[in-house]
């Protein structure tokens, strides 16, 4: 891959709170042509689960061949768009926080509305846990170990679990290496494993 080809690949920084930057991030993803390549840098503590689902859906819906690299933190809701990347890279210092979904509502919410929100959120949490495992090509059991009650997972541990590729700092300057096709894990590309929903 020539330097000219490298420079044409869109680079997107997914940094800070997802919710605060959702419009900008959506526009940046839509700027990538369907089926095109892009490089997404992750350093985010998360945000709204709905925002996470939207960004993840755009990546998958448009068939983006995204390479995601965790340059700092990729936690909470930021895990979904990262897991949607065709190739996932982490460094020895990358940090990812898996935890149960958190929610809050407006102060003036009626009892019936609060009860419905709690029901909806409980189902959403289960569905998103299954989805996250499927995107990573992992198992529900593996996700449960990290999500409940909540665990920080370092880059080396995520790579050891086969969910990303560990890139040492001396390789970070080689963009052609970073954008090479995703390696297979146990004979399958990232995210190729089938996941069964919990009962």
TrEMBL record:
Q: Which SUPFAM superfamilies does the record match to this protein?
A: ClpP/crotonase (SSF52096)
The name this protein goes by in its record: ATP-dependent Clp protease proteolytic subunit
Note the InterPro entries from the entry.
ClpP/crotonase-like_dom_sf, ClpP/TepA
Q: According to the entry, what is the taxonomic lineage of the organism?
A: Bacteria, Pseudomonadati, Planctomycetota, Planctomycetia, Pirellulales
